[in-house]
Amino acid sequence: MTAAELLPGSNVKILVAVADVDTLVKKNSAIDQHAHQNTTSIYTAGKTFPMLPEKLSTNLTSLNFQEDRPVIVIEMTVNEAR
């Protein structure tokens, strides 16, 4: 999930939230090894090939609207090039 806010002086604050899957998937478990092999989800017009099992990727770790989820948030400010 991403969000952006225009700040004074043409600066932009950007927030990027990524689901913290480690809270549900134990290191070196079968799911972890599967995700390590896939490395990312692939989205095509006909089908999505998720990195994680469907219950995790579309429910338990999905950043759905009005759902509390453990996340890692990166905040950055981008300054206007001068």
Mind explaining what this structure looks like?
The protein has 82 residues and is α+β, with helices and mostly antiparallel strands. It is 20% helix and 33% strand. It has 2 helices and 5 strands, in the order E-E-H-E-E-H-E. The chain has helices spanning 30-38, 54-60, and strands at residues 2-7, 11-19, 42-43, 48-49, 71-78. A hairpin with a 4-residue loop joins strand 3 (42-43) and strand 4. The protein is elongated, with a radius of gyration of 16 Å. The mean pLDDT is 89.
Number of strands: 5
As residue ranges, the low-confidence spans are none
Could you give the distance between the termini? 29 Å
Looking at the structure, what is the overall shape?
Answer: elongated
Largest sheet: 3 strands, antiparallel
Q: What's the Cα radius of gyration?
A: 16 Å
Share of helix among residues?
10-25%
Main structural class: alpha+beta
How much of the polypeptide forms β-strand, as a percent range?
A: 25-35%
The number of distinct helices, counting runs of at least 4 residues, comes to 2
Which short descriptors sum up this protein?
alpha+beta; three-stranded antiparallel β-sheet; 2 helices
